[in-house]
C-alpha cells in the first residue's frame, strides 16, 4: 500500500482556495454580535458619512483666499458674523471678508472652504485678526469624505473587525448579512488512545492529546467544535462514529490512522461516508512534519485526516486546516499571520521537493532576535512547548544557513 494523490504545500493551498466553497447558510446579525464574522453580501452605503462638512478644529470658518498672505507681521482682517453651535445646522452663510466661529465637529457654513485655528486668530469685538493663511479644504472633513452615498463600503467575504463595525455604526447599518460559522466535528482514532482525563494508563495506552489540542485551536479561532471521542482501529466502529458526527457538522477532522499501515482506516472511512459521492482528493502532502494528511469529501462536506503524531497534527492544523476553515466561513482573503523576522541561529538542512516546517524558539541576544531550531520527533509535544513558531523552508531549498534572515510564523 502506498500514498497516492500526494500534493505539494502550494497545490494543497490552491485546492483549498479553488475547490472548497463557503458554506451556503447565511444569517442576519445585529452589528454588536457580528465581530469576526464574514459578510455574505456587499455593504452599500445608503447615506454619506459624514452627512455634513465639519470642522476638525476649534477655529473660524473662512474663505481660504481671504487669508492669503496673512502672517503675524501682516495679519489679515475679517469680520466675525456669528458662530455655529455643536449639533445644530449652520443657518448663516459666509460671504467674502467674513469669518464664522466653529467648534471642533461643528457644521461648516455655506460659502466657507477652510478653518483657521483659534491659536492663529485674535478677535476684538466683531473684528478678527488672522495671523496665518489657510489652504482650501484645510481643517475640514467634507460631506462624504469618509464614505460616499452609494459606495461599496465592504465586500462580500470581508471578515468584520472592530473598525468595520465602527464604520457600519457610523452609516446607521444595524444588521449585516453573514455566513453561518461552519460546524466542526473532531474524532480521534486508535486502539491505544484513551480520554485525556483518564488518570492511570494501562500498558500501551496513551492519552488523547489531539482531542484536546485540535478542538482548542479551533475554539481559539472562533469556531465551535464537537468532540466525538475516540474511535477504535476497527473499520465498522470507526465508520459509525464518523458517520454520526458527520450528520451534525460541516467539516469533520479525523486524527490518526491516516498513514498506510494495516490498521490505518481513515481513507476507507472517508470513502465510505456519505450517501452520495465520496472522494479522496489528497492523500499525502510533501511536507515535514505531517506528510500522511488526507483531504476528502463526502456528501459535499470536507473531511480531513490529520496525522496522529501530536506535533504533526498541530502543524497541519495551523498551516492547512485553519485556511480551510476560513475558506468555509466565506473569507475572501488570507489574513496576515502574526510573524517575526529573525536570524537563523545555525544551519538547518532540508530536503528539496518537500516543504519543511521547523519548530523554532525565538531568542534575543544583544538586541537581535534569533530563530533556534527545536529539533525532535513529531510525536514529542515538548518540541512545541519549547517553540514560539514555525519557520517554513520551501520545497526548492536545501536548507537555511546560520545568519539567514527568516520570517517566523508565530503560534
Ligand atoms: N510505513 C510508514 N509508516 C509511517 C509513515 C510512512 O510514511 N510510512 N509516516 C509516519 C508519519 S510521518 C506519521 S506523522 C505517522 C502518522 O500516522 P497516522 O496518521 O496513521 O497516525 P497513527 O499511526 O494513528 O499514530 C501515530 C502516532 O501518534 C499517536 N497518536 C495518534 N493519535 C493520537 C492522539 N489523539 N493523541 C496523542 N497521540 C496520538 C499514536 O499513538 C502513534 O504513536 O505515521 C508514520 N508512520
Ligand atoms: O509526517 Mo510525520 O508527522 O513527520 O511524524
Question: Could you outline the blueprint of secondary structure elements for this entry?
Answer:
Layout: H1 9-19, E1 26-30, E2 43-44, E3 54-55, E4 59-62, E5 76-83, E6 98-102, E7 114-117, E8 121-124, E9 127-130, E10 140-141, E11 152-154, H2 162-171, E12 175-179, E13 184-189, E14 193-194, E15 206-207, H3 210-220, E16 225-231, H4 235-246, E17 251-255, H5 266-272, E18 278-283, E19 287-288, E20 294-298, E21 301-306, H6 310-328, E22 339-344, E23 348-349, E24 355-365, E25 368-373, H7 382-385, E26 389-393, E27 399-400, E28 405-410
Parallel strand pairs: 5-6, 13-16, 13-17, 14-15, 17-21, 19-24, 22-25
Antiparallel strand pairs: 1-12, 2-11, 3-10, 4-6, 4-7, 5-9, 8-9, 18-20, 20-21, 22-28, 23-27, 24-25, 24-26, 26-28
Molybdate ion (MOO) binds next to loops.
Amino acid at each position: 500500500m502506498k500514498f497516492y494523490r500526494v500534493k505539494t504545500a502550494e497545490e494543497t493551498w490552491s485546492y483549498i482556495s479553488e475547490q472548497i466553497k463557503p458554506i451556503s447558510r447565511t444569517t442576519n446579525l445585529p452589528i454588536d454580535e457580528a465581530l469576526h464574522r464574514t459578510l455574505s453580501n456587499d455593504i452599500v452605503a445608503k447615506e454619506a458619512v459624514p452627512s455634513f462638512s465639519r470642522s476638525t478644529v476649534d477655529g473660524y470658518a473662512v474663505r481660504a483666499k481671504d487669508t492669503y498672505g496673512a502672517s503675524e507681521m501682516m495679519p489679515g482682517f475679517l469680520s466675525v458674523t456669528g458662530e455655529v453651535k455643536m449639533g445644530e445646522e449652520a443657518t448663516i452663510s459666509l460671504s467674502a471678508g467674513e469669518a464664522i466661529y466653529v467648534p471642533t465637529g461643528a457644521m461648516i457654513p455655506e460659502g466657507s472652504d477652510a478653518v483657521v485655528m483659534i491659536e492663529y486668530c485674535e478677535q476684538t469685538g466683531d473684528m478678527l485678526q488672522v495671523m496665518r493663511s489657510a489652504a482650501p479644504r484645510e481643517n475640514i472633513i467634507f460631506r462624504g469624505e469618509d464614505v460616499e452615498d452609494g459606495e461599496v463600503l465592504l465586500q462580500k467575504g470581508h471578515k468584520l473587525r472592530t473598525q468595520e463595525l465602527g464604520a457600519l455604526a457610523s452609516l446607521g447599518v444595524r444588521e449585516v448579512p453573514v455566513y453561518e460559522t461552519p460546524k466542526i466535528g473532531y474524532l480521534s482514532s486508535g486502539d491505544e488512545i484513551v480520554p485525556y482525563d483518564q488518570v492511570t494508563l494501562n500498558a500501551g495506552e496513551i492519552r488523547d492529546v489531539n482531542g484536546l489540542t485540535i478542538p482548542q485551536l479551533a475554539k481559539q479561532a472562533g469556531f465551535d467544535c464537537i468532540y466525538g471521542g475516540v474511535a477504535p482501529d476497527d473499520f465498522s466502529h470507526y465508520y459509525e462514529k464518523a458517520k454520526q458526527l458527520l450528520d451534525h457538522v460541516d467539516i469533520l477532522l479525523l486524527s490518526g490512522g491516516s498513514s498506510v499501515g494495516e490498521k490505518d482506516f481513515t481513507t476507507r472511512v472517508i470513502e465510505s461516508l456519505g450517501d452520495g459521492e465520496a472522494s479522496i482528493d489528497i492523500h499525502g502532502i510533501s511536507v515535514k512534519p505531517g506528510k500522511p494528511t488526507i483531504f476528502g469529501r463526502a456528501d459535499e462536506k470536507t473531511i480531513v485526516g490529520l496525522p496522529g503524531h501530536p506535533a504533526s497534527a498541530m502543524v497541519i492544523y495551523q498551516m492547512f486546516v485553519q485556511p480551510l476553515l476560513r475558506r468555509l466561513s466565506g473569507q475572501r482573503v488570507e489574513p496576515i499571520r502574526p510573524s517575526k523576522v529573525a536570524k537563523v541561529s545555525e544551519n538547518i538542512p532540508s530536503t528539496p521537493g518537500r516543504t519543511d516546517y521547523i519548530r523554532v524558539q525565538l531568542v534575543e541576544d544583544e538586541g537581535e532576535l534569533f530563530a533556534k531550531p527545536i529539533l525532535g520527533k513529531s510525536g514529542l509535544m515538548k518540541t512545541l512547548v519549547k517553540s514560539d513558531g514555525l519557520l517554513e523552508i520551501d520545497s526548492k531549498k536545501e536548507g537555511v544557513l546560520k545568519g539567514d534572515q527568516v520570517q517566523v510564523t508565530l503560534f
